[in-house]
Design a protein that fits this description.
By secondary structure, the protein is an alpha+beta fold. It has three domains: 251 residues, no CATH class; 65 residues, no CATH class; 54 residues, no CATH class. Helices cover 33% and strands 18% of the residues. It is built from nine helices and twelve strands. A hairpin with a 4-residue loop joins strand 7 and strand 8. Helix 1 packs antiparallel against helix 6. The longest helix has 42 residues.
């Protein structure tokens, strides 16, 4: 829609006001998560046990060389064949059975590899002739010897069983997560994050990853095992967090977001991602610093960023905020604005002449420029033509008249 320069400037300003209102309203209803602990589900990769049932992907910067360029999907993101984490169900074993002479003496919990095998110092024994007597464990020298021999065997078992039990804990957490995501698939999504930003702020402290990659959780019940793989969506910057900080320049945030999307700095990559985070810290504040490996501890009045990969669950509403950000960034240079948006902000435009009056039932000839994926009637051809002429169209009708069928077309 062609507008005069002055009219276009007014349209941009009014449109920006509308979307700033929507941005503020969205932030009111869906506040930006500033603390990773506020997310509904969190798994730090550094806390994963060392066990064969847990496989981690170590993505190196070499993945971005020219030979690997064919593996990128054209948006800077890697192929979805790359897995981030694989967890199969470990085989658990029971503690070696103690000698029968020790069963009455052992304290409960000896079957847990995380606990100790301890004995009671004494027992009360009732005898029909002698009555009740106190028997000490050391009264029989054979008992301490049996205990020592069995404890050596049990300690060997516990050393190998502890990581297996920890791996089972991770498997069970993913099992519960999978069930939750099946129920809430439209509301939540799984994300891999790194670049932990730590910053004391008057409006609330920040401790959250800022380099994010969306994941999908796959369950293979025949094994059984879980695999977390990257989606086709590119790596993103948690720009909504920076938008909530008034002293951070929005243009800087936009440039950083574009750089992340273009270069694809992966949360698990090493040198390239670290170099970007180091530059980012200084762009946020003159005192900003990159602390290297590990999440920054404590809070300071200036931003600090560290490397500590984490997987977490978040609400999908973040996509709405990202879309509004992109619109606000695009509006100042946008030459063509939607006629529907212009009408909302009070700028009337003269519609082009229609070859066919609204409401007419005369059949419209098929147009080779209009490509439908499903069968279409004359009304649907008319809707397509009106969209071409006006950029928007309102379709009304009772149930069963084909509105949903028209949407896919």
């Amino acid at each position: 829609m062609d507008l005069e320069a002055e009219e276009l400037q007014i349209a941009r300003q009014r449109s920006a006001q509308v979307f700033r209102f929507l941005e503020a309203f969205n932030q009111l209803r869906n506040p930006v998560r500033r603390q990773i602990r506020e997310q509904p589900w969190v798994l730090w990769l550094r806390q994963l046990p060392d066990h064969p049932s847990i496989r981690r992907s170590e993505i190196k910067d070499e993945a971005f060389d020219e030979e690997a360029e064919s593996e990128l999907n054209g948006t800077g993101a890697r192929s979805t064949q790359d897995f981030v984490l694989g967890v199969s169900r470990p085989q658990l074993t029971s503690s070696p059975s103690p000698p029968s002479e020790l069963l009455d003496w052992l304290v409960d919990g000896w079957g847990n590899p995380a606990g100790n095998a301890e004995v009671k110092p004494h027992l009360e024994v009732t005898d029909a002739q002698r009555g009740t007597a106190i028997v000490r464990f050391e009264d029989d020298p054979e008992r301490p010897r049996l205990l020592g021999d069995w404890q050596l065997v049990r300690e060997e078992w516990a050393r190998s069983e502890k990581p297996a039990r920890a791996a089972m804990g991770v498997f069970e957490r993913l099992y519960e997560l999978h069930a939750e995501m099946e129920r809430e698939s439209e509301r939540v999504e799984l994300v891999l994050g790194d670049g932990i930003l730590n910053w004391r702020r008057p409006e609330g402290g920040i401790h959250h990853p800022i380099i994010l990659q969306r994941l999908q959780l796959e369950f293979e019940p025949e094994i059984p095992a879980f695999n977390l793989r990257e989606t086709e969506r590119p790596v993103e910057l948690y720009s909504a967090l920076f938008r909530s900080i008034s002293e951070v320049d929005g243009r800087v945030v936009g440039n950083l977001r574009d750089e992340v999307e273009r270069a694809g700095y992966h949360p698990l990559a090493e040198d390239s991602t670290s170099a970007f985070l180091q530059r980012l810290a200084v762009q946020l504040s003159p005192r900003g610093e990159f602390t290297g490996e590990g999440e920054p501890q404590g809070e300071e009045d200036y931003p600090r960023i560290g490397r500590d990969p984490v997987i977490f669950l978040r609400k999908r509403m973040l996509g709405f905020a990202t879309a509004i950000e992109a619109i606000l960034d695009d509006l100042p240079t946008r030459e063509d604005l939607s006629p529907s948006l212009l009408r909302v902000v009070g700028i009337e435009t003269s519609p082009p002449n229609e070859a066919k009056a609204p409401g007419s039932t005369v059949a419209i000839q098929e147009d080779e420029q209009i490509l439908f994926t499903k069968p279409a009637n004359s009304e649907q051809w008319q809707i397509a033509r009106r969209l071409e002429d006006h950029g928007s169209v309102l379709v009304q009708g009772p149930p069963g008249t084909g509105k949903t069928h028209t949407i896919p077309n």
